[in-house]
Specification:
By secondary structure, the protein is mainly α. It has helices spanning 9-20, 36-75.
Length: 76
């Protein structure tokens, strides 16, 4: 089987496995490492994303709450 030059390596591996497996039932295992470095990078990424979202949402929430507060205050 020939593949275009811009084929992703992951696709090549998948097709290679399917061609080599000729029985009715095939299985394989995929082991993913969860090392300390990966976990640290994951938490830093989550913290960075959360910081960006909260910096965007918090001022809007404060403005909405203050507008509701002043509106209700004028009603009394």
């Amino acid at each position: 089987m020939h593949f275009p030059s811009n084929t992703i390596i992951n696709e090549l591996i998948k097709h290679s496995f399917i061609e080599e497996c000729s029985s009715l039932l095939c299985s394989y295992t995929f082991m993913e490492k969860f090392d300390v470095f990966y976990i640290i990078i994951l938490f830093l990424g989550l913290q960075g994303g959360l910081t960006i979202v909260l910096k965007w949402i918090c001022p809007k929430l404060v403005r909405i709450i203050s507008e509701i507060y002043y509106y209700r205050r004028r009603q009394i």
